[in-house]
Design brief:
Elements (H helix, E strand, L loop, with lengths): L3 H12 L2 E6 L12 H7 L1 E6 L27 H22 L5 H36 L13
Antiparallel strand pairs: 1-2
Helix pairs in contact: 3-4
Length: 152
């Protein structure tokens, strides 16, 4: 069953009449349809509303380039330990709130210690996996950073 948003979008597409307008590589409108041989390489087809001559409403893209992603750091046990201590403090606070009986602090501290001890190697392994993937991409000639798929 479609949601309200989907129903509104479908109704909007049925309300407006669209025609195809062909644009050349510089963005100028062409008279009629281009031949099929050169259409894929030098010309693009876009949908334009016939009512006001503008493109259909959508997200506006900024002219600035996308933000560069950070390069992953080589894995280190020290960084994994710092992250685990932060997690241990959060886990201790949550388990303390959940413990309503006497001795709740001791139990919460023990569980936080166990979770912290397990989190250290887990974090290190994830960092190592991410760094190895980055190194492989960089080795193959890419930028080393994954490219975001273009949204349509």
């Amino acid at each position: 069953m479609p949601s309200r948003k989907q129903k509104r979008r479908e109704a909007k597409t049925k309300r407006h009449e669209y025609e195809f307008v062909y644009l050349d590589s510089e963005g100028h409108e062409l008279e009629g349809a281009p031949d099929e041989a050169g259409a894929s390489s030098s010309r693009t087809k876009s949908r334009v509303s016939s009512t006001n001559g503008s493109k259909p409403a959508g997200k506006k893209r900024s002219s600035r380039p996308p933000r560069a992603r950070r390069e992953p750091q080589p894995p280190s046990w020290q960084r994994a330990g710092k992250r685990a201590l932060l997690l241990g403090a959060v886990v201790f606070a949550l388990f303390t709130l959940g413990a309503r009986h006497k001795g709740g602090y001791g139990t919460a501290a023990l569980l936080a210690l166990v979770y912290t001890a397990l989190f250290v190697p887990f974090t290190y392994l994830i960092d190592r996996f991410a760094y190895k993937r980055y190194e492989l991409r960089k080795e193959r000639g890419g930028t080393g950073l994954p490219q975001r798929p273009k949204k349509r």
